[in-house]
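> forwarded from #structure-qc
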């Protein structure tokens, strides 16, 4: 049974057509899950759905790096972002790779016995927690070489985005009563997905789904890998949500995320008020949603969404999804800057 949807009511997968239907078809074949709620929440915005899927496929699923290694990065990111749904999902997917002990150790927050595995899990966590004042901690000791960077960096950034959308728009549990947290259930789920997870996928096959989706320059860290094209499309699709904020509100939320140190915000509204108090009253509900989506999406409530609907002249589900995506991608961009800086430094110095 899929997790309950929050704040929006996505269309049933079987009712989708065009680009969205094509995404679901490829998702079922390559990911092994036909009705993945993590993507259903994005379906009101087909370009956003396609770009998010393409980033995930071209980083986590395709390529030469070990799927186990990339799942550890995705799990570490999800733990750092406090996304229970995604932590459980990647625990199941680690079981699917065949390393059951590793899956349970990582899920409990432990340290894997294999030093390489331990380093990858820690790096995934540090992409959020290591954002200190110099914005270099997250990537200073990356446990992979430059050739593998498109896959590992792409995986980390994909799940910094997906975690935020899932935390905002889905409940915490993949299964009724949280059954997915039982080891025997996770192991069984992994066995069911094992054949799909262990398949080798050809890179680039998601890119035709992005035809007609505007995209800018691929990011530096991606080189000429397909994930760069996908990430550029996601950047553009997520950026559309900022159009509903107005210039003053966009500048306010961007400044807040630029000042973020990677920590989880304190309880209460003081930190939000600090950045939004000077905005017109009608802009504050949208700015609040954006800031929460960026820094603490698990704290978004139905009341927050209702306040936005009352202030927005056309409060459709697609607009809410795009607004949250804009906030999520602001945080992704902040993290990307931290991860990318050592790559740029190495290129300039030759080290």
């Amino acid at each position: 049974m899929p997790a309950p949807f929050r704040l929006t009511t996505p269309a049933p997968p079987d009712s989708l057509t065009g680009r969205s239907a094509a995404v679901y078809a490829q998702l079922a074949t390559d990911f092994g899950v036909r009705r993945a709620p993590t993507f259903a929440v994005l379906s009101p915005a087909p370009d956003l759905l396609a770009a998010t899927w393409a980033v995930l496929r071209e980083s986590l699923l395709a390529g030469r790096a070990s799927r186990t290694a990339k799942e550890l990065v995705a799990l570490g990111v999800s733990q750092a972002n406090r996304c229970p749904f995604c932590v459980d999902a990647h625990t199941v997917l680690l079981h699917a790779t065949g390393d059951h002990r590793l899956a349970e150790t990582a899920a409990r927050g432990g340290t894997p016995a294999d030093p390489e595995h331990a380093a990858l899990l820690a790096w995934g966590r540090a992409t959020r927690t290591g954002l200190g004042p110099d914005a270099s901690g997250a990537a200073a000791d990356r446990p992979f070489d430059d050739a593998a960077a498109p896959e590992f960096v792409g995986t980390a950034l994909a799940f910094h985005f997906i975690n935020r959308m899932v935390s905002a728009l889905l409940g915490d549990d993949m299964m009724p009563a949280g059954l997915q947290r039982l080891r025997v259930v996770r192991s069984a789920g992994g066995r069911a997905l094992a054949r799909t997870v262990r398949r080798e996928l050809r890179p680039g096959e998601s890119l035709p789904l992005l035809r007609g989706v505007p995209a800018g320059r691929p990011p530096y860290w991606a080189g000429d890998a397909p994930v760069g094209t996908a990430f550029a499309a996601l950047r553009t699709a997520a950026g559309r949500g900022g159009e509903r904020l107005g210039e003053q509100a966009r500048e306010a939320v961007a400044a807040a995320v630029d000042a973020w140190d990677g920590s989880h915000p304190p309880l209460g509204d003081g930190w939000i008020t600090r950045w939004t108090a000077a905005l017109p009253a009608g802009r504050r509900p949208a700015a609040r949603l954006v800031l929460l989506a960026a820094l603490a999406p698990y704290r978004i409530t139905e009341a927050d969404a209702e306040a936005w609907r009352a202030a927005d002249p056309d409060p459709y589900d697609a607009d809410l999804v795009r607004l949250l995506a804009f906030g999520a991608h602001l945080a992704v961009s902040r993290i990307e800057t931290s991860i990318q800086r050592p790559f740029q430094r190495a290129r300039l110095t030759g080290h």
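QC bot note: The CA atoms of residues 133 and 261 lie 7 Å apart. The two ends are 50 Å apart (CA to CA).
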